[in-house]
Amino acid sequence: MSLRTLAVIPAFNEAQTIAGVLQRLREAAPQVDRLVVTDGSRDRTADVVRSLGERHLELVCNVGYGRALQAGILYAMRRNYDVVVTLDADGQHDPRDVPRLVQELEASGADVIIGSRYVQARSYSGPLGRRIGQATFSILTRLLMGQRIYDTTSGLKALRASACGAALEGRFLDFHTEVLVRLSMLGFRIAELPIVVQERTAGGSMYSFVSAVAYPVKTMLFIITGMLDASLRGRAK
Asked: What residue ranges in 12-124 does DSSP mark as E strands?
């Protein structure tokens, strides 16, 4: 793997799982640098990361998944990494997929590779409300992008530096469906790679009944805003 790569791991109250994620990532991808962004955690997440001697950003308050991820990506861009891989801190992602995504990025020439739970291996189910939302946004990507993305909410992605830079220009992004639509409109190539995701065994999900209602509305607003922004930037060029 020739591309200089940073794995960015946003973490909110993941003291029970973060050590295992980092250890498995060290073993699976020793050539990949690691950065944990502790997003105002109220438990010992930051203490665990510090005790392991891992590179980390400690946010003083909880700013949310999207902005925590933006902080990590900005860190990578300022240090001239070629690729950023994002993955979750809850242990659901298999760190062995990290080098697979980077290798696929190199081989395919794509700008973004999504680790997809649904494109081929569809053993992961998840809550019904989330599955309905996922299917809806998957169909929406086909309408807006001319390409169906089966797993629009995957937290496991590999992005080239150029795609990271374009994503960071959209301050309204949550790094799911809306960023994919935006990058596609700006001419970036997006592909999926099948992965298997484990069910969460510790901690709590950021999804709730309230978020199941609010998230689709917020995402639609982000998509509309992102499309307008991408369209204006395209015209400016």
From this structure: 33-39, 56-59, 83-86, 112-116
Return the percentage of the chain with pLDDT > 70, whole number: 82
Q: CB within 8 A of 26, min separation 6: which ones?
A: 34
85: containing domain = 5-236
The total number of structural domains in the chain stands at: 1
* Averaged pLDDT for residues 171-183: 81
211, containing H or E segment: helix 209-236
Assign residue 151 the CATH number of its domain: 3.90.550.10
Helix H, strand E, coil C: the string for 181-198 is HHHHHCCCCEEEEECCCC
CA distance 231 to 235: 6
Structure tokens that stand for 60 in this block: 């003083």
Q: What is the largest CA-CA distance in the chain?
A: 49
Whether 92 and 140 have beta carbons less than 8 Å apart is answered as no
- For 161, the enclosing helix (H) or strand (E) is helix 161-168
Strands 33-39 and 56-59: parallel
3-class secondary-structure state, position 42: coil
Output the pTM of the full model. 0.83
Is the separation of the CB atoms in 143 and 227 below 8 Å?
A: no
